[in-house]
User: Fold this.
Amino acid sequence: MIMLRFAMDISVIIVEDDKESRELICKYISDIFYKIYKTKSAEDAMPIIESDNNLQLILLDWNLPGITGVEFSKIIRESVKDRYIYIFMITGEKSNDSIIMAYENGVDNYITKPFSFQELKAKLISAKRVIAMENNLRKRYLEVKEKSIYDQLTGLFNRSEIFEKLNIELIKHRRLNIPLSIVLFDIDFFKKINDSYGHQCGDYVLKTVAEIMKNNVRLYDYIGRYGGEEFLLICPKTDRKETFNIAQRINNAVSNMDIKYNDLILNVTLSGGVSDTIETKKLEDLIELADKRLYISKMSGKNKITY
Assistant:
């Protein structure tokens, strides 16, 4: 069941070129909205609409300086994608064709002149209910989306999403001929941690290592959980040598931290393997090369990065 919230922090903007009409409308609706902007033109209104994330209702006159309200409605729909906006038209147009055209260009509801302010207020209260439902639906959608792309234990990208990121970066590489590198990490002796101290301890180690990784990559890098105790790092615009330095920094940060779990103090290290698009441009081969070098790191003593 979707719970409605009336969101008293909703802002509204009145776009009306007649000052007296703007002031009268503002007076009658001031008790049902958190903040009310008043503008005389689309040109004045657009910067406000784009900058105030709480602005979710627009009262729009049909006739505006240099543009119709219908044309402005279409611009708003094409420009503002970060939130739901309810567009309410105030119009003297009464023909079916005009009303249909308004709906086709993004208008949600309308009232025709002359109108009573009681009717306008009632329609805007109804609009607030629609906004509340849309906000709750959007919230649920974002929650579902988050669960679909993030690993629930570590908060990193999950396997399918990190592969999607890698596919996208490979497309960019082929189009722009810019370098791309990856690292496959594995937590050393992780099975021993699970067997000796339990899976809750192992989960805590995974979360802690993931947090350290997030804090030691660049803003445009991607890090995800590859599976089990393995992680995949994607380094755009970076060759193998530079990526090795990033991977080494991550391993140093992990190994230099004492992970405290209950009465235990654990020292954890990583092994890793690096590959890049200078060697191969195929996703499967990139992964295979990195995996082979990870294996070399494991077989030659662990706690090292091979590139």
Remarks:
- Residues 1-7 have pLDDT under 50 and may be disordered.
- The first strand starts at residue 11 and ends at 15.
- Residues 165 and 222 are 8 Å apart (CA to CA).
- The chain is about 50% helix and 20% strand.
